[in-house]
Amino acid sequence: MKILNLYAGIGGNRKLWGDEHQITAVEINPDIANIYHDLFSNDIIIIADAHQYLLEHYSEFDFIWSSPPCQSHSSLRYNIGVRYRDTKPMYPDMNLYQEIIFLQYHARNWVVENVRPYYKPLIPPTFILQRHYFWSNKLVPNKNFMADMLWRSQIPDLQQEYGFDLSEYQLPNKRQVLRNCVKPEIGKYILDYFLPQEE
């Protein structure tokens, strides 16, 4: 399949997808995109605004995965940061809902991933796995994945959980980059439901 991986980060969701697909990853941060390239050198990596790239290229792909920034929606940020640590409130980033609506009406196979929000979602998720909400054109059955307490974890724990060693890279926000990853097993579990079924 031709797969578009938007807001790719270092590729947590992509880690177990293998190399039999043609994967295009879009990441706006060049430093993070370089790490992705080192980890998945067979993929096409584009340094660009994923939101705009989706609008211009959605029809070129068989499957689209989008993980828009989650901080402005995060129940964790709101419940701990805003309520107890004087973190400044912020407007929820509506790109999330723009992409869900756009994909509903214009794409073939797609998934949008985000964290559980601190508010009632404006569009109910199609399914929920672990700490993530998913909107999609397919209902992926529920499955129990081992719960994590990664919001408390430090870099070594996160690297072990996701199977990435970032010790050779200089990033000012390495812990956040790792925390933004989707568990690789979840990424593979979802993709498997979109693979063409053999006759």
List the helices and strands and how they pair.
Layout: E1 2-6, E2 22-26, H1 30-39, E3 44-46, H2 50-57, E4 63-66, H3 75-84, H4 95-106, E5 110-115, E6 127-129, E7 132-136, H5 155-162, H6 174-179, H7 184-192
Parallel strand pairs: 1-2, 1-4, 2-3, 4-5
Antiparallel strand pairs: 5-7, 6-7
Task: Characterize the structure shown.
The protein is α/β, with parallel strands linked by helices. The chain is 32% helix and 16% strand. The chain is globular and about 40 Å long. Strand 6 (127-129) and strand 7 form a beta hairpin.
Q: β content, as a range? A: 15-25%
Q: What global shape is seen?
A: globular
> What structural class do helix, strand and pairing data support?
alpha/beta
CATH hierarchy, class: Alpha Beta
* CATH architecture designation: 3-Layer(aba) Sandwich
Counting copies of identical and different chains, the oligomeric state is: single chain
What about the largest sheet? 7 strands, mixed
How much helix is in the residues?
25-40%
**CATH fold call:** Rossmann fold
Number of helices: 7
Order of helices and strands: EEHEHEHHEEEHHH
Low-confidence stretches: none
User: Rounded to an integer, what's the Rg over CA atoms?
Assistant: 16 Å
**Strand segment tally:** 7
Query: Averaged pLDDT, please?
Result: 89
Give the termini distance in whole angstroms: 17 Å
Number of domains: 1
- CATH superfamily heading: Vaccinia Virus protein VP39
Q: Going across the major beta sheet, what is the strand order?
A: 3-2-1-4-5-7-6
